[in-house]
Specification:
With 79 residues, this protein is an alpha+beta fold. It has 2 helices and 6 strands, in the order E-E-H-E-E-E-H-E. The protein has a single domain, classed as Ferrous iron transport protein A (FeoA) (SH3 type barrels). It holds the Pfam family FeoA.
């Protein structure tokens, strides 16, 4: 998914850092799946681990440990 210049996605966040979700750019089932995991605007997401090829990305959200695909992480704009 293309991102506008200067916008940072969850995929850009380094291991051991956290970020606050600004916006979900995915549509349809992708956006619904992300929201079902508890990731919504204003949510704090901590990146715990990234697989060697960048997929999956393991994060902590609201005390739960989750795995995200690269495509999901690219749909989450953070600030």
């Amino acid at each position: 998914m293309a991102e506008a210049a200067g916008e940072k996605t969850l995929r850009d966040v380094k291991i051991g850092q956290s970020a606050v979700v600004r916006k979900l750019t995915g549509e349809g089932a992708l956006k619904r799946h992300i929201m079902d995991m508890g990731i919504t605007k204003g949510t704090d997401v901590y990146v715990r681990k990234v697989a060697p090829l960048g997929d999956p990305i393991e994060v902590t959200v609201r005390g739960y440990e989750l795995s995200l695909r690269k495509s999901e992480a690219e749909s989450i704009l953070v600030g």
